[in-house]
């Protein structure tokens, strides 16, 4: 799937993005990053986050492209939450989250990009942080705690109106989570500039507002997104007016890449039945055929999965999700040579492709080749220390190194990282304390463990 439109545009409108980020001190930036990481861990622990490298990569690529239009540094991360509600949120430090419901309700990638750009604008303009005065000195960490509490409350109860806090927190929630009208309009305006600069159709932001507005008239409650980002008729008309002032960006009527992403999201979030998939697959729909194959892999029916995948290959034989699904079918059947043959060349041709390379590492682990797996995965944890999927593979690979004197220490270290970023801070610290005892005769490793243990213990003191 293309991560941005390639159309050239001849008119370059004057952008007016306030340079908020460049004026904040290093200390504030570090504090915001710690808050973003803390909320990342809490969200991983308390919400149904989907750990899926392919889906994460698709969305991260688009996010990165929009982020490149801003002054923001490397973000804490992007998480996908398995929730049919149409919602997205952003936290200081650059933690972004999207619900599967948002992906499924959008009609094209530009509409998703519009929501992403809006959330990025909230962070780039530091809307949370600038509201601190109204927060009576309780600071960003308290705000982060209320954010997580509200998100979890809305998740625990299927009713979209459940994000209600008691006592004094209710007033704080009302003040802090419902952005001011001016902040919403600023996020719309600047977000639209970001998405346009990244090559997405700015009309799609206005389109999605209208789609959601029509959807709310058919149900008895508002989506969560409406509570935290109040929509008014004025905002909708302003968005359309602003989009009309920008040069046109052509949208493709049917983007097969987005159709696959949308269908895949439906399957892995269990919002698509086998019968529904079959009806669409029988019409020769590539996304549905691929979705049906993924559905059967998840059911453990590898024969039916292979039949659906073979039909999909006739339509398109070069999609990365075909490679990943075929590899999963072979792994499910314990055909390890076939699994390796399927994924190895594509992964090596695209060493930066996380989904393909983590799948290759999984194959090496299944084949009992831990060093080959670790060589691959190390690149990804070096690039992103919060990569839970990668740390789990490192742990599995280390466990296979029967001859290594550091086997138990490494298993504990890698498990600690996976636990820590999954929000299980106490278990992570226990694992590192155990690793420290086992490594006491190795000065270098013992020192490394001690440094990381101190970091975790200090960050854990950040109560939210």
From TrEMBL:
Comment on bound cofactor: Binds 1 zinc ion per subunit.
Cofactor dependency: Zn(2+)
Keyword Translocase: no
GO molecular function, one term: metallopeptidase activity
Domain Peptidase M48: 57-240
Enzyme class: hydrolase
InterPro entries: Mito/Outer_Membr_Metalloprot, Peptidase_M48, Protease_BepA, TPR-like_helical_dom_sf
Membrane-spanning parts: none
UniProt cross-references to SUPFAM superfamilies, sorted A to Z: TPR-like
Main location: periplasm
Keyword ATP-binding attributed: no
E.C. number(s) listed in UniProt: 3.4.-.-
UniProt-annotated binding residues for Zn(2+): 118, 122, 184
Keyword entries, A-Z: Hydrolase, Metal-binding, Metalloprotease, Periplasm, Protease, Signal, Zinc
Compartments, record wording: Periplasm
Active-site residues (renumbered): 119, 188 (proton donor)
Function: Functions as both a chaperone and a metalloprotease. Maintains the integrity of the outer membrane by promoting either the assembly or the elimination of outer membrane proteins, depending on their folding state.
Family assignment from sequence similarity: Belongs to the peptidase M48 family. BepA subfamily.
Name assigned to this protein: Putative beta-barrel assembly-enhancing protease
